[in-house]
Amino acid sequence: MKFHRINALLMRHLYLFQRSFPRIMDIFFWPVLELFVWGFLSMYLQKLNFTGVNIVTILLGAIIFWDLLNQAQKAVSVSFLEDVWDKNFLNIFVSPLRISEFLSATALIAIIKMAVISVVMGILAFFLYHFNIFQFGFYLIPFALNLLIFGFSLGLFTTAVILRYGTAAQILAFGFIILIQPFSAVFYPVSALPIYLQHVAYLLPSTYVFEGMRTVAATGVLPIRDLLLAFGANAVYLVVILWFFYRMFALVKVKGRLMKLD
Hints:
Elements: H1 3-15, H2 21-47, H3 55-85, H4 89-93, H5 99-129, H6 140-165, H7 172-180, H8 195-201, H9 205-219, H10 224-254
Helix pairs in contact: 1-5, 2-3, 2-5, 3-5, 3-6, 3-9, 5-6, 6-7, 6-9, 6-10, 9-10
């Protein structure tokens, strides 16, 4: 891989934000809106005095982590779609750019978006609700890293499907992640799900992240088991989805569909 190619692709996407208010809104609007809705709901529930349960910590921590996962997934799939919408996708791949460099650039975009949105939401949560996400120290960082990896894998999967079936499947770039939210135990523990759905939930790395986050918030102890299971599940998903992406890309090239993406 050549870093200057990755950097060129990264700068190409970052330059789009300089004079595009809708793109900036796309990063901040929904996360901030959700923070307002869930934050005010958390404050209301906190006043009901549920003894032994810190509603603000659990709900606001969950919504901030969920938005990190959402941004990581969208950073990959929407970056790909922007090249398709601009009819630039073919230009990119007639250049010496390799697929690995293309994927590295989209991963960097995901990291930048996650960093920006976590800082903005962390500041807003602190000033609006006196919620300090850094109260958990460095324990939440490895869980955030797992969300980045899983979001990247999901973005890669939706991109591969769009490659295979064309822009008719582009709705997946925005809606696919919603499908896994009920099974990821974002706002409630896995035990709240029916037994047969708990088996589905434990297949997702995000489930171990949110379970681990609640453990850190409740006890201040890093749940090593949840962390290792999250990394293990992420490794499996990443390998399988990378194979799927390369497989779909090769198939599209053989059938000459790169020129028909629009």
